[in-house]
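Annex B.
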Amino acid sequence: MQLIALAFDAPHAIDAYLNAVSGAIRDRSDAYDEGEAIWSVVTFLVSLAVTFGLYQTGFIRGLRDRVEARLPRWAAVFPFVLVYTLVFGLITLPLDIWLSHFREVAYGNSTQTFGAWFGEYLIEFGLNLVATAIFVGLLYLVIRALKRTWWIWGAGLSAVLIAVMLLILPVFIAPLLNTYTPMEEGPLRTDILNLATAAGVPADDVYVYDRSRQTNTISANVSGILGTTRVSLGDTLLADATPAEVRAVMAHEIGHYVLNHIYEMLFAFTVLIAIGFAFANGTFAWAARTFGGKWGIGDIGDIAGMPLLFALISTFFFFATPVVNTIIRSNETEADAYGLALAREPDGFAAVSMKLGAYRKIDPGPVERFVFHDHPTGRDRVTMSMNFKAAELAAGATDLDPSQAPLVPEVERYVAEREAKRTGGGK
Ligand SMILES: [Zn+2]
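Ste24 endopeptidase: predicted structure tokens.
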């Protein structure tokens, strides 16, 4: 028997995948992603402008005076935060509605009516309000007790809160918005559990949640810690991806879990938050001196300074966007490599990455990618997949087929179907 490997042409396969999403659909996906970047800048500027306006009109100062006249200082923080967050939320509501609902509908991502979307928006707003009130209440206890070093302790407090959120979010909050049902017995479920077992993930069940209630975008996750570990797939993934693609996606998600990305991110973001708090601490005195007279802001422990303090923190994070995105993106790249090695489905992963390209810019420029993209691009993923395949074949792998054509027809089928749903008036 002759052992001449059939030539696998990786560059050719990469081009074939990248060209699978083209024309008007590629333009729309580019426009969607570019819009996301532009709107993130607009949203930031609007939040600064609203904060400025609420100070200039005397609203913040008046609110502080009223709550502190009726309640002890530590307790006054809570009504202050509740009223301020509600007023701020009402002013920015039209922008939120446009961005989170109508824009998603226009691009064919959302599957919800306005009413259904707004109901969930209110639930999330309510949960956020409670979490914010608890966080700010505790933060101001820390700030008032430790005026010089609060930013270190405040970052520690944030880390604890984020950890609690990560712990309770998948177990208690996610089921409020979606229904999780055990995945039907079958070969695909067995494949997923085998991947999990091979990777040492302590999960013995797979759940499917009704993601299609909100969106037609594809997603899955492996979440939880300490006995709450669960493997979950959006029903959109099952509906829109072939079994090979599902295995590729689940292996990527298992990669996040096995590589402890959640703890790595918790650590990285705690450090960033500490730097952000230090920045806000340093600039607060200057800002309060410059504007504080008219705005009625006292020292850093004054709750009337909270909107200013948070504006400074969000300014820091706005400029740290590329840093945050690079931290996330490097984890995503690691999970991609892990997933390819675990599932050994390079064509499945390339195909599903191009399906994501129906609503994510496939091939942005290097600066745009660095600043705004928190995931590897379609080009990155297709390239990594095909290079993996080429390297494995060169090393003598027998489970990969060098003559298998790129799964372009499958990508084109998905893209055409999605486009028909978007334009056909059908949901
Ligand atoms: Zn990921």
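Residues 10-24+179-261+324-423 form a domain with the Zincin-like fold (CATH 3.30.2010.10). Confidence is low (pLDDT under 50) at residues 1-5. Further annotation is deferred to the next reporting cycle.
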